[in-house]
Amino acid sequence: MNQNAKGALYALIAFGIFASHDVIIKVLGGSYSPVQIVFFSVLFSFPLAMLYLLRDATPGTLIPKHPWWMVARTFAAVITGFCAFYAFSVLPLAQVYAIIFASPLLITILAIPILGEQVKLRRWIAVAIGLCGVMVVLRPGNSSLELGHLAALISAICGAIASIIVRKIGREERTVVIMLYPMMANFIVMAAVLPVVYQPMPIEDLGKLGIVAIFAWIAGRFLIAAYNTGEAVVVAPMQYSQILWATFYGLMFFDEKPDTHTIIGSCIIIASGLFIVLRESKSPGSEQPVLRTRSRPETGTSPRVSTFIKRRNPKK
Question: Would the pTM of this model clear 0.70, i.e. be above it?
């Protein structure tokens, strides 16, 4: 098996585990507020995050070099986490993934003002087509449009903002700073709101949240290995395998069958995303914002994978 095949396999495993992680979030979301789920997810992720941080030997303090960018990224990450967890709780898994898959398209747009990227006509057309795919999934004006759809869309937008800011400041900020600020903000904000929504949790549900943290850790390790082994243009599209996992899990556990609009919209979004990935891989002068941030939306509930990919992959 060559390096690209290994990288693709590692990525498929990673996104399969991430999908399992999201199933648990959906199960818990039927009984508990997203605030409570986010709070305990962060709490149980701290010990694992420390294992990441022990590998960061970069000298410096915990004071960010770009405080306003860090504030914006932290704010975006907190919103992303809450909205994503809520969307998974109330919507079919396949619909949530279809909408969140718009995030790389939004990263391409944000790369213009924030990174100074130049986007040519073909990529603009691909972005426009991809966003049309999102509209197919959302079906504006349809009576079935719910608050969960809005939450998923906000998660995609804020996830794109958080990701592109990492590309903006990531080379100058320490990994520990990039990682800890969103996690601490989530912990503090959710702790402040928790007394209002708290429901007692039996030990088995706390165990499920522990599994969520462990799954995020394991999947993150596989994804780092994937990008460090294979080329980004091969690894990045593996994210779309989550729609298959979502369909499988939805049918098995929640009796969810993707409707025609979700299937068509997903195909449009994925096709446009793949086109952009392939175009960026052939552009030697590009910073490749989509490829370099193609992991998981920034939620601030677990260590961010992309901060380690960018530092450890010499192919970037």
Answer: yes
Per DSSP, 238 falls in state: G
Q: Which domain does 143 fall in, by range? A: 3-309
Contact criterion met (CB below 8 Å) for 137 and 268: no
How does pLDDT run across 155-182, given as a tens digit for each residue?
A: 999 988 988 888 888 778 887 788 888 8
The answer to whether the CB of 211 falls within 8 A of the CB of 10 is: no
155 lies in some domain: yes
Evaluated on CA atoms 136, 264, 92, 186, the torsion sign reads: negative
Q: Provide the 3-class DSSP secondary structure of residue 306.
A: helix
CB 239 within 8 A of CB 15: yes
In a domain, 314, yes or no: no
pLDDT digits (tens, 9 = 90+) for 231-289: 777 787 888 888 899 999 999 999 988 888 889 999 998 898 888 777 766 665 554 55
Tokens of 191: 């702790």
- 315: in domain: no
Asked whether the CA dihedral 157, 211, 74, 81 is positive or negative, the reply is positive
Q: What are phi and psi of 256, to 5 degrees?
A: -100, 125
Q: Does residue 232 sit within a domain?
A: yes
Burial of 30 (0-12, 13-18, 19+ CB in 10 A): exposed
Q: What is the sign of the dihedral through the CA atoms of 208, 211, 213 and 219?
A: negative
Count of domains observed in the chain: 1
Distance CA 153, CA 131 (A): 11
